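Hi all, a correction to my earlier message: I attached the wrong file for Glutathione peroxidase. Here's the right sequence:
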Amino acid sequence: MADALLDIPCVTLGGEHKKLGDFPGKALLVVNTASQCGFTPQYKGLERLWQAYRDQGLVVLGFPCNQFGKQEPGDAREIAQFCESNFGVSFPLFRKVEVNGPGAHPLFAELKRRAPGLLGTQKIKWNFTKFLFDPRSGTVTRFAPTTKPEALKSAIEPLLKR
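and the right structure:
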């Protein structure tokens, strides 16, 4: 079953062109991130999820965003260095994107359409909003910025290869 979500082009911090379809059959956790946010320590929990579940079929994908309080001012090199040195991040990180408004990256436009927020809003309220994609059903589940990565285990585990 073809899924248009998997064909949306993205660019990693290192400049590599990727699509979600480059991770076939994997459960995908897509997160808009920021380096100077109160939720920034969630990088550590996201890395723990990546380490615990990547061999079973989870891919964590971070998309830095500067739309909320200008909390991601750095360039690609600075973002990569910050994430690695402060939180040991080894999961894929992508170039800075907008998640709301007319400049919203097509990936986030589609994720918001498939998994609207509270009261059906398509807007992302803050950094570290999380979207979990089930490769089998094509279902997207949204989690609030306040939802800690470790709280996602019960949603992730049923999507993994056993």
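Sorry for the mix-up. The chain has one domain: 4-12+25-159.
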